[in-house]
Design goal:
- By secondary structure, this protein is α+β, with helices and mostly antiparallel strands.
- A hairpin with a 6-residue loop joins strand 11 and strand 12.
- It has one domain: Creatinase/methionine aminopeptidase superfamily (Creatine Amidinohydrolase).
- It is globular.
- The strands form four sheets. Strands 8-7-9-14-15 form a five-stranded antiparallel sheet. Strands 1, 2, 4 and 5 form a four-stranded antiparallel sheet that branches.
- The protein is built from five helices and 15 strands.
- 28% of the residues lie in helices and 23% in strands.
Length: 266
Amino acid sequence: MIFLKTDEEIELMRESNRLVGMTLGELAKHIKPGITPAYLNDIAGEFIRSHGAIPSFLGYKGGPGVIDYPGSICASVNEAVVHGLPTDYVLQDGDIISIDCGTEKNGFCGDSAYTFCVGEVSEEVKALLRTTKESLYEGIAMAVEGNRVGDIGNTIQTYCEKRGYSVVRELVGHGIGRKMHEDPQVPNYGRRGTGPLLKKGMCIAIEPMINMGSKNVVFERDGWTVRTKDRKPSAHFEHTVAVREGKADILSTFEFIEAVLGDKAI
């Protein structure tokens, strides 16, 4: 079932999503060679709680035989596409790390992700990140009343594949509101004019997951981490948006990240 939000509820969601952006901005201050995803996870958990919210990823239910998610953030390094665990891996110069973060505040969820460069990253990898981020905004432009979910996915897919990249199929964006994951699913591929009709008040998380090599992925034995099968890099950017007439309303923000990174921002 797809839940339409009132303007008042959307403003509460904006508050939750702004906190996600603030958290990612705080993490941006610490991302450099020599630190670990576990260290970033501790910072994020403390920061979120200090602002009167809870980390919505922590304790998220896994499938049969899989542990509940143990972190406040997902930290996916290099070939990890999404859902990477915040481990004690020491980040190296030239790595990339996708940080996906969720909060719950005032009964509503926020969700956003950004892929960061660690130290000096190759131009080839930066181009992947740049294209993925650009495709996010191309998809967001389609999130208006009267369009369909397939219009978003087709736009992202076309933008990335024209530039030589591939789109992950097994993982998709989603509706969001009182729960982190609601209907509808929002794939990053598809055909125009297909899928659920977009209506004013729908809130969705759009999150391109784009690979440098093949679109094929592997689900690791930890039950969470998804990586590229060919072990080539993958990038992930995400915004939560509210569907409106004429132009989508972006509820999350990268402004805090960009304020920290300055001209080094992707």
